[in-house]
Structures are given as C-alpha cells and as structure tokens.
Amino acid sequence: MSDRRAQGLPSGGGDGTRAVRAGLPEPVKYEPTLPGPVFAAHYHLPGEPTGPYTYGRDENPTWTHLERAIGELEAPAEDGVETLVFASGMAATSSVLFSQLRAGDAVVLPSDGYQALPLVRAQLEAYGIEVRTAPTGGDTQLGVLDGAKLLWIETPSNPGLDVCDIRRLVSEAHARGALVAVDNTLATPLGQRPLELGADFSVASGTKQLTGHGDVLLGYVAGRDAEAMAAVRRWRKIAGAIPGPMEAWLAHRSLATLHLRVERQNATALAVAEALRDWPEELGVRYPGLPDDPSHLVASRQMRRYGCVVSFTLPTRARAERFLDALRLVDDATSFGGVRSTAERRGRWGGDAVPEGFIRMSVGAEDPEDLVADVLSALDQSAQ
Ligand SMILES: Cc1ncc(COP(=O)(O)O)c(C=O)c1O
Prior knowledge:
35% of the residues lie in helices and 13% in strands. The chain starts with a helix and ends with a helix. The protein is globular. The protein has helices spanning 3-6, 15-21, 61-74, 89-100, 117-126, 166-175, 226-239, 245-255, 258-278, 296-302, 317-326, 368-383, and strands at 82-86, 106-110, 130-134, 150-154, 179-183, 201-205, 219-223, 309-313, 331-332, 342-345, 358-362. The strands form two sheets. A seven-stranded mixed β-sheet has the order 1-7-6-5-4-2-3, with helices on both faces. The site of pyridoxal-5'-phosphate (PLP) has 14 residues, from α4.
C-alpha cells in the first residue's frame, strides 16, 4: 500500500499539496519529517537474504522515499505504478531500451530527440536491434510502427520543442502490439502525466526541472506493468546505474518546491517567449505554451503546464555568440530546468539538427521583468 493512503493524503489534492508531502513516510515521534540520507553499502542481514534491504546496489531506504514521491506525482490516482530511480536520465533511458529489446526487435526513436539518443541508437544496432526514427511532430511515427516492439517519444522534444499526441500514438501503438515510453523530462510530472495518457513507461532525467538547482544528476522510470518493471529493475542491478543516497535525498528535498518553481519558471518562460515573439526581427520562437506555437493545440490537450524552456534562432552564429555574451542574468551553460536561467547556442555540440544561431534558453526563478529586460537588452546590443 502506498504511503499516500497511509497518511490520508487525498489523491485528488492539488499539485502544491502533493509536491510538499510526496513520499513522506508515516510520522514517527522525534524523527525528521523527511529522514536523512542512508549511507549503506550493506545492511544487517542475518539468515535468509530476503528484502527489503539487503545490498546497497539493489535497494536503499532513501531511494524508496524518493520513488514513492515521484510515483505519487506521475500517477496520483493509481496504486499499481512502480517507480525506480537511477544515476542519471541516460541510465533510466538505457534501462528501458536495453531491458525491453532483444536482437531482432524493432524500436522507433525520435529523430529530433535528446542528443545522446544517436549514441544509444548505435549501441542498439550493435546488439542486432532494428532502429527506425521519426520526427516528434506530425504523427509520422505511425508510418514506421508496424512490427515495432517499442515506441519511444520525447514530448516536448529537446531542443526543438515539438510535441506529439501521446494518446493517439499510444492507442495506435497498442493496437499494433508495441509498448510506449515517453521521455517526460521537459514537462515534469506537474506538466504532463504520460501514464494517465496511456503510456507504459514515463521516463525522465531528474537532473533538470524536477530537482531544479543544477546540482544533482538523477533519472527515473515509472511504469505499471510489473513484468516490464521487473526487467527494468534487473537492468539497474546489472548495470549498477544507481543514484547515490545524497543525490536521492537532495532530489526528494527539492520536490517540496517543485510546484513553486514550475509555476514561477513556466510563467516567466511564457513572458520571455512573448517578448521574443514581439521583437521586430523574426526569431522563430518556439514555446508550446504560446497560443500561436505550432505545437500549442496538441500540447494544450495533454499538458497541464508547458515547461521552462524556450527556443529561438538568431540569424548567425556570431550574432548568437554576441547575444549570449551580452546577457547579464543568464549563464551560458548547458542543461535546463534550474532556478538560475541558462542559455546556450545549441549548435556548439554538433549533435542536433539546428541552425548555427539556434538558442535554447532555460528560464529560471528570477523576477520576470528583470529577465525579460536582460534578454531584450542582449538582443539589442548583439544586433550592433
Ligand atoms: C530530454 C532528455 N532526456 C534525457 C536526458 C538525459 O539526462 P541526464 O543528463 O540526466 O542523463 C536529457 C539531458 O539533457 C534530456 O534533455
């Protein structure tokens, strides 16, 4: 039974209430509300080696609390969902792909997803798995789905911020016998709940807005199919792709402010996107929350909040570099989702099919007026 019910936390409660209480154990007199990190490679284990806590690579009480917390946010109305935490988003991603697919299987991956996916693709192919790709927007996944074992979607996609219709793709994939995994990194569980939309797995990097301070690497997989999740768990054990207790505890502590951060950052992201859209040069701004964004209609049917990432394109690489140099409140750094705004010229990595002047900006928790003024001033200065 979940701790949520043990504590009488209403599954229908608001996101803020759920976020501050997520995963907390039953109160124990003189114990802290959120128990501190448990540093243990092994546990006292006389007799038969049965769980819950035997060896530190298999289980840890600090993970258990965090896993319950994330499960309560990803699937507040469901009891049968299992969540597993990992050392990073890529560890979580690999655990699903490599535990579910065998030589001879086919998988559909996004052609415009996170830039480490091509590396994963090469590894899957080396193991004899057929990899097909399709862009995130436009339902073209349907054309390559027949005979696939797994459909992997990333929505909104990083860095292009395209969106696909999760319900539609799930229904078509299930009709053809394929499982569906959704990378929910950009949205966070407060922005989108893929399992409720029918997906088999919700997978994410917790390194981003979920933890939100740019100081933790973490990943998770949530799923309701016990057999599939047992295979994911086995993969975590085999690969040893486990988070440290300190990271898991920091992540849980950060969840308490998830709702506050998401509300603030996403509202400011919309303000930044609007300011960019209204700038006299055409910048090709993308933000799923902008009513005139090509993704908005689909996004509005499945997302409850639209994320803190905005993308746009400056005419040249030199202009983009001048723009980044001129920003005062926004660090030139990769990753996204933190309380301090960051931006980068995404083309510098060479892995994404984006123009040289393409900027991915992650909006933080600064005052919206300050941030918008900084972005507009940097646009102005960099134009000269
Ligand atoms: C959409 C998406 N998925 C997965 C990952 C991988 O996460 P991590 O860096 O925590 O391994 C990232 C990282 O940027 C990402 O943006």
